[in-house]
Design brief:
380 residues, disordered C terminus, 8 helices, 7-stranded antiparallel sheet, single chain
């Protein structure tokens, strides 16, 4: 989401008026990519921006050539708007004094699939029927799974818009990246087209790098990032919400019942707000979860391994998944839905046989996505 590369890159975001999803979407473009005015407020603004672009891109060409080139670009703006294009740019690259130009286009379109995986599958099936000779590849980008298509496209530039003043058939290489947006019925389509020929691989390499910068975030995640940047010091302690506390205490009570050990229970009030692992990995630092830590000591060491087994059996019967540590002295468990997706609470249970001690760390779900429900418990 954020870009700290200074003036060496250009951060591109989708215009709010064209964005139906609640996600804020962005990617990083190299500074030499020249943006086309697909989101200009009116024709006059578009013409002004095109004139500036063309005179900057083709400074040594005659005014007539610049004018026709600008007309050709202008003719593409309306079809782009009708095709839900949210960004377009020209990418000039020069290799061994051999100039080359490619076009980058990004569209944000709706799909009717039930989830992201189905959207990619249906898209691939449709494209394979339409372009049976093209190459298709599923790839893992920084933002998730995407579908790549590599092929060609052809069209005819009418004499009115052609730089030469004559009708011009065009055949060019094309690469597309299809990226479904999570939790929505929308998809991003990134498209690279060029007549670069022998330098096509260089344009493709750049295109893949751009795809790996695609990212998105919710309003809350953006606000968290801005808070973190404006106040980089360690945030003040935050008290978890009462509903979160009660839900954690209930989960700890269930865990205590499943452990079924005699001993001295300590730390029942040791509860703190934390940032979950997923949000921390995204660079977010404000609390989104809470953790309840407690222990049982003065337990006969021989009784501790059986306690771990009882917990695994009890929580597995209630739809939880778990895994044992390599040494067998710890258990990690988490709630899952009917599809096996992780949700809800989780805990880590560890035993120290020599010390006769069992320690539990119970964590609430991330409140950026899940709301805890208050219930009663023996802890509070």
């Amino acid at each position: 989401m954020p870009n700290d590369a200074g003036d060496t890159t250009t951060r591109t975001t989708t215009p709010q008026q064209r964005q139906a999803t609640k996600l804020h979407i962005g990617w990083i473009m190299p500074p030499f990519v020249r943006e086309l005015p697909v989101n200009a407020v009116d024709d006059e603004a578009a013409a002004t921006q095109l004139h500036a672009l063309v005179t900057d891109l083709l400074p040594d060409h005659p005014a007539e050539y610049q004018y026709r080139f600008a007309l050709g670009l202008s003719a593409q703006l309306e079809p782009m708007a009708e095709a839900d294009v949210i960004y377009a740019g020209l990418c000039p690259l020069e290799v061994d004094e051999r100039p080359g130009l490619s076009t980058l286009v990004v569209s944000q379109v709706a799909h009717d699939a039930e989830n992201e995986t189905a959207a990619l599958r249906k898209t691939r099936e449709t494209l394979e029927r339409k372009y049976p000779d093209d190459d298709f590849q599923s790839v893992e980008l920084t933002c998730g799974t995407a579908l790549l298509r590599v092929g060609t496209s052809s069209y005819v530039i009418s004499a009115e818009w052609s730089v030469s003043g004559r009708e011009l058939p065009v055949s060019q290489s094309q690469m597309q990246g299809y990226i479904p947006l999570p939790g929505t019925a929308e998809m991003l389509i990134f498209e690279l087209t060029s007549q670069a020929g022998e330098d096509w691989d260089l344009h493709v390499e750049l295109f893949r790098e751009i795809l790996n910068t695609v990212d998105w975030g919710t309003d809350l995640e953006i606000a968290d990032y801005r808070t973190m940047r404006s106040a980089p010091s360690v945030p003040a302690s935050v008290e978890p919400a009462e509903a979160v506390k009660k839900a954690l205490y209930r989960c700890s009570s269930r865990l205590l019942d499943a452990v079924a050990l005699r001993g001295r229970v300590g730390g029942p009030d040791s509860l703190a707000a934390i940032t979950c692992e997923g949000c921390w990995g995204k660079g977010l630092r404000t609390p989104c979860s809470a953790k309840h830590v407690w222990h049982i000591d003065l337990v006969p060491g021989s009784a501790l391994p059986a306690a771990l087994s009882r917990v695994v059996a009890a929580f597995s019967d209630n739809g939880w998944e778990s895994e044992r540590g390599e040494t067998g002295d710890a258990v990690r468990a988490w709630e899952v839905d009917i599809s096996g997706n992780r949700l809800g609470h989780s805990f880590v249970l560890a035993v120290d046989v020599a010390a006769g001690r069992l320690t539990a760390e119970v964590a609430s779900p991330c409140d950026r996505a899940v709301d805890a429900e208050p219930t009663g418990s023996v802890f509070g």
